[in-house]
Specification:
It is a single chain. With about 300 residues, the protein is α/β, with parallel strands linked by helices. It folds into 2 domains: about 80 residues, Leucine Dehydrogenase, chain A, domain 1 (Rossmann fold, 3-Layer(aba) Sandwich), CATH 3.40.50.10860; about 150 residues, NAD(P)-binding Rossmann-like Domain (Rossmann fold), CATH 3.40.50. Helix content is about 45%, strand content about 15%. It is built from 12 helices and 11 strands. Helix 1 packs parallel to helix 12 and helix 3 packs parallel to helix 4. The longest helix is centred in the N-terminal third of the chain and has 23 residues. The radius of gyration is 20 Å and the shape is globular. The mean pLDDT is about 95. The structure holds NADPH dihydro-nicotinamide-adenine-dinucleotide phosphate. The site of NADPH dihydro-nicotinamide-adenine-dinucleotide phosphate has 25 residues, from helix 12.
Length: about 300
């Protein structure tokens, strides 16, 4: 019987550990650590994510504010907004919620965030810190996965890991963090030849492609730990029936809402073949926001010492 890796429990643990650190910082700095989120436009999913971030900040005692420029905002206006936040001493962390409206030069806006306040860990300076093993903010989703593995006692040192996906947000930093934990890592992507065989080599398989239920049983080594990062909302009843053929409750959810959330790994294959796995939802998702809180607290701690 596979072990289900419970992201919500680890999130709660991480948040609880932050509370005394935030209290100490609040005494030292004479103010709470501060996080500013730029939420441009009216993307519904982004609004939900930002609401979750605001709630988590409140839970641990971080001051948070959300700036909401309109959909029509220009690159120059966003750059000016980032400059102002960079200069504001009571703001320790700046998060630019992606995606930005189409007319905005996303890369320049992200580059403008001061590396010291870059709580997403996306700034090239911080990517360099990660790749050279120096301290600095780590991208939240892969950092959360490392916490999930460590806190469930899953060994990484010397193990074979395959990461499917090479984005700057998930796949690449995930591979670098696993290397830092002494795993032997393969980074796979859309041009990888014989992906099932590459995945079957893995003791730890991380799926981050954004392809609903793509990794089926022939991709999973029996007993492997499978981390499913994918968050895909599907609206086809046929696809839902195929993927959740074993799960009447999910199909009922689909019928009630007209859509359902699916990871990148076939859920039944994962439950039957893996030794341990993250469910979707409730696996990786909850950790991303918790790690954003960790990065904000650590940015403030670096100022306090
Ligand atoms: P991107 O679209 O930026 O990257 C996808 C990667 O997957 C690319 O490297 C791509 O390869 C690879 N890929 C795509 N199709 C295939 C295929 N058929 N075979 C092998 N590799 C493939 O996605 P992200 O990294 O931003 O996100 C990945 C998933 O994780 C999404 O479902 C997203 O919603 C989810 N996510 C979840 C988070 C959470 O908190 N749980 C946070 C962030 C993301 P190539 O480079 O060759 O094109």
């Amino acid at each position: 019987m596979a072990i289900i890796l419970n992201g919500a429990r680890i999130r709660d643990e991480i948040k609880a550990e932050l509370v005394p650190r935030v209290q100490k910082l609040t005494q030292t700095l004479g103010r709470a650590p501060g996080l500013s989120v730029i939420l441009a436009g009216s993307n519904a999913a982004s609004q939900i994510y930002v609401a979750g971030k605001t709630r988590a900040a409140r839970d641990v005692g971080i001051y948070s504010e959300t700036l909401t420029p309109p959909e029509s905002v220009t690159t120059e206006e966003l750059l000016a907004m980032v400059d102002a936040l960079n200069a504001q001493p009571e703001i320790d962390g700046i998060l630019v919620q992606l995606p930005l409206p189409a007319q905005v030069d996303e890369a320049s806006v992200l580059m403008r965030v001061s590396p010291a306040k870059d709580v997403d860990g996306f700034h090239p300076c911080n990517v360099g810190m990660l790749s050279t093993g120096r301290p600095g903010p780590r991208p939240c989703t892969p950092a959360g996965i490392i916490q999930l593995l460590k806190r469930h006692g899953i060994p990484m040192s010397g193990r074979r890991a395959t990461v499917v996906g090479r984005s700057s947000i998930v796949g690449k930093p995930m591979s670098m963090l696993l290397v830092a934990e002494d795993a032997t890592v393969t980074t796979a992507h859309s041009r990888t030849v014989d992906l099932p065989a590459v995945c079957r080599e893995a003791d730890i398989l991380v799926a981050a492609m954004g392809r609903p239920a793509m990794l089926t049983r022939e991709y999973i080594k029996p007993g492997a730990t499978v981390i499913d990062v994918g968050m895909n909302r599907i609206t086809s009843r046929d696809a839902a029936e195929r993927i959740y053929r074993h799960d009447a409750a999910r199909l009922q959810q689909f019928d009630a809402k007209g859509s359902v959330l699916v990871g990148d790994v076939d859920p039944l294959a994962m439950a039957e073949v893996a030794g341990a796995y993250t469910p979707v939802p409730g696996g990786v998702g909850p950790l991303t926001i918790a790690m954003l809180m960790v990065n904000t607290v650590e940015a403030a701690e670096r100022k306090a010492i």
